[in-house]
Amino acid sequence: MIKFADRMNLLKGSAIRELLALANKPEILSFAGGMPAPELFPIDKIKAATEAVLNEQGEVALQYSSTNGFEHFRQQIADRMAQKLQIKTTADNILVTSGSQQGLDFSARVFVNPGDTIIIESPSYLGALNAFKACEPNFVAVPTDDNGMIMEELEKVLATDDKVKMIYVIPDFQNPSGRTWPMERREKFMEIVNKYEIPVIEDNPYGELRFEGEYLPALKSMDTKGLVVFLGTFSKIFAPGYRLGWVCADGEILKKYNFLAQAASLQPSTDAQLICSKFIDMFDLDEHVATIKANYAKRRDAMINTMEREFPPEAKFTHPNGGLFTWVELPDYIDTKVMADECLKQNVAYVPGEGFFPNGEQKNCLRLNYSKLNEEQIEKGMTILANVIKANLK
User: Residue 22: which pLDDT band, with cuts at 50, 70 and 90?
Assistant: First the structure.
């Protein structure tokens, strides 16, 4: 009989990955995955960038390369972080990864031993929870409100748990809730972090996708002690299929991530880096991001407006200013995993909320994505969902 490592008992298939398989069925209106709109991919420009790379650097593009990534590409990333997020850094502080998911996997392995505590938001990104679980941590989920993690509750945990090794947060358009931390909460968070000197993983896949209001500085921009590890990605602003993300961290911490990258994959994709870098050199990435944001804002509006019109008052939901998701909370007696089966019978898919809690303790929530489908499809799907919700009310 085959005996697997004990850690395999902690890992289960992602509800999102299973539901994404449904997205390929044309009859399904899927609000499940955090999928960019495929019709917005800049295919013609990527073709031009690809041709230029192969013509100019074909032998380089198809060869092995360094673990940390090409210097020019890393400097482009550093420049963009300064421009968009007020993070002053250099190429030397950047490690290119295979998507930000690899950065999440590395993070727990860098900082956490079995039995150590990871602090997360409640709810939190289930992909991060799954990545962290292999390291056998204890999760402490800090309560949140409309402005994100509640700082008084965070400090209570840090004052009483001496096994905290890492804090994981998504301050901008959080997955799954869509909430964004205001400036005063960011400042208070950094004050607390500096006091206790706990490493922070700042996950920022959606920060550039702000539809209205002012960009807020990243936590990393306020990091005076080298405690914040910033994770970024090109998946939401360029193309997820290239699996290009990055880690931005200070000296010794980045060195540990680099060691893990060498062991795990040797290097990120050579040609993907060069193509993305050439795209940035040849074209206006900001213009492309502006197109994405304009389309997603319309789709967000279509979803929120339909929910406000069709959902019963018992259904509470967030009103995100950017990103890809809104979060719905229903009465406690409704199990959204059971309700998801009812919706699937009517060709509507969403992600039940229990996976966004480390122990699956809250079953009355669900996450909705508005980036992939058009406004007409969103209105139709939300109307169906509203009717299913109403049928489940007591």
Answer: low
Q: How far apart are CA 52 and CA 76, in angstroms?
A: 18
pTM: 0.94
365 beta partners:
329
Range 10-19, long-range pairs (CB < 8 A, 24+ positions):
10/133, 10/134, 10/136, 11/130, 11/133, 11/134, 12/130, 14/126, 14/127, 14/130, 14/355, 15/126, 15/351, 15/352, 15/355, 16/126, 16/127, 16/351, 16/355, 19/349, 19/350, 19/351
Tell me whether the omega of the peptide bond preceding residue 114 falls within 30 degrees of 0, making it cis.
no
Cα–Cα distance measured from residue 324 to residue 298, given in angstroms and rounded to the nearest whole number: 12
| Order of strands across the sheet that contains 365-369 | 316-317, 325-329, 365-369, 351-352
The pLDDT tens digits of the residues spanning 96-150 come to: 999 999 999 999 999 999 999 999 999 999 999 999 999 999 999 999 999 999 9
Helices (H), the chain: 15-23, 43-61, 71-85, 99-111, 126-133, 151-160, 183-196, 251-264, 270-282, 285-310, 336-344, 375-392
Distance CA 266, CA 273 (A): 14
DSSP string spanning 259-287?
A: HHHHHHTSSS-HHHHHHHHHHHHHS-HHH
Pairing status of strand 164-169 against strand 117-122: parallel
Report residue 278 as tokens. Answer: 């050439």
H/E stretch holding 1: none
Contact 349, 23 (CB under 8 A): yes
Cα 34 from Cα 30, distance rounded (Å): 10
Among all chains, which residue has been given the structure tokens 């550093």?
A: 78
Angle at the Cα of 24 (from 23 to 29), degrees rounded to 5? Answer: 40
Q: Which two tokens stand for residue 393?
A: 């009310």
Rounded to a whole number of angstroms, the distance between the first and last alpha carbons of the chain is: 49
Q: How far apart are CA 129 and CA 11, in angstroms?
A: 10
- Report the 10 Å Cβ neighbour count for 147: 13
Which three-class secondary structure state does DSSP give residue 2?
Answer: coil
Phi, psi angles (nearest 5°) of residue 362: -115, 115
270-295 residue pLDDT tens: 999 999 999 999 999 999 999 999 99
